[in-house]
Amino acid sequence: MAADHDDTFVPDLLPERNGGQRRDLSQYFGRASLLNSVEICVSEPEKRSILSSVGIKDTYTVYLVETRIKETSSKGIVDAPTSLWRRYSEFELLRNYLVVTHPAIVVPPLPEKRGIIQWQEFKTTDNFDPDFIERRRVGLENFMLRIASHPQLSQDKIFHAFLQQEDNWKESVYETGFQAKSDSRLKNLNASFRLKKPDRQFEEVRNYGTDLQTNISNLLKIRNKLADRLYGIHKIHGNYGRVFSEWSGIEKKMGDGLQSAGHYMDVYASSIDGLLEEEEQYADQLKEYLFYADALRSVCRKQEVLQYELERQEENLSHKVKQKEELQTGQASGFSFKGVTKLFKTETPESKEAKLKQLEESITEAEEEVKKSQEEVTVFVDHALKDIERFRKQKVRDLREIFINYAILQIKMAKKGVAVWSNAKECFQKM
Asked: Which segments within 264-359 are labelled E, that is strand?
């Protein structure tokens, strides 16, 4: 598929399953992308168990994260090919760090921790189901490629360490102090407040994120219903196969035709498992954008927190300026017992001058805080809007490719049905 050569497009990043040929993605990314010089893959999921200090068995899955250098110019970023094992929790820690450290970035989401296959009720969907492990491996690789293709996230030192440093990597993350930043931000993020001057652009993005999540969620629900129905219809064709095969045993002239037709029905019935498993991959890609909606809203919430902090500091400055004016004029605005007491209280010129000086110093500090917050808001808004625009372009191109591939798969399924019934028709004609 043709694509513009910029930093925004992340094409169909899911590699082919079962050892298929991997695509060279470097052509889709700009010069800032780490993928131009390094290949990254997540492979060979492996089940492991350890005994805890209290004797409880902990079973988990690890994934092999491999990097290979494509150009010598990559030295200093990835110095040598690496191969190391990572648990899902380590991918999770990496993302949590990136979310806190790069607040203006729409950080790529992780694949879901637990899978539910609604179209096959009896199918095992625990964390160690081989099909689910494979799908999660693909999702984790996609997560890594998303980061490596991002012009800013791909330059993060902790991300580079994730690719290269097997021992003490977690300690390196915690040493950054990102948790303290996260805890302080979370207090504000969880607080309920109303902005005096909300940014309309971010309000629109937040509402869009909600609408995007709703639409994709509804799409996935419809797809699950259709997949469940298709699964049942295909499996019922196996009953045709059983009846035709049994019937062929009592027919001399019609026997071969019925037997062959029954065989085609059995093939059709069994084909649905692979087709729906393939379809599940496109559902996973849609789920990524279901989770991206949360990432979008998270960026908007961070902007609201910064704006709220700015408004509080502006109120504080306004209050101090008002205090200075009241002290200079000797008049308190509004009625209060405290204000009345001040009016009747005699104050020496020296004490008044000292209070004025203290207020002026406090006003100067407040002005600096307001200026600092204004700059922080301005920088955040600029970076966030640019990254949101990058995300929009990525989203349009990705969803277009997902929908096209999904349509092609539906055509493939329909052709399979036509071929089966055409073959059955020939069998019936030969009877």
From this structure: none
